[in-house]
Amino acid sequence: MSTPVARAAGPPAARQEVAFDTSGSTGAARRWLRQPWQLEREVELVGRHLIGPVDHVINYAPPRHLFGALFGRWLPRMARVPVQQAWADPFAPLMVPAGARLLVVCLPMAWNLLHRNRPTLERARSVVALHSSAAPPPAAHRLVHRAGPLLRAHELLGSTETGGIAHRPLAPEGAGAAPWRVLPDVTLLRDSGTRAEHGRIERLTLRSPRLARPERAARPPVRWSTGDLVEFTGDRSFQLVGRDSSLIKVNGVKVHLERIDERLRARLPRAECVVLPGPGDPLAGEGYVVFWSGRRRGVDLAAVRAVLRDFANPTRIMEVAAIPRTAGGKPNTAALLAELRPAPHPLSKRP
Question: Of 25, 168, 304, 312, which is the most exposed, with the fewest CB atoms less than 10 Å away?
Answer without folding.
Answer: 25
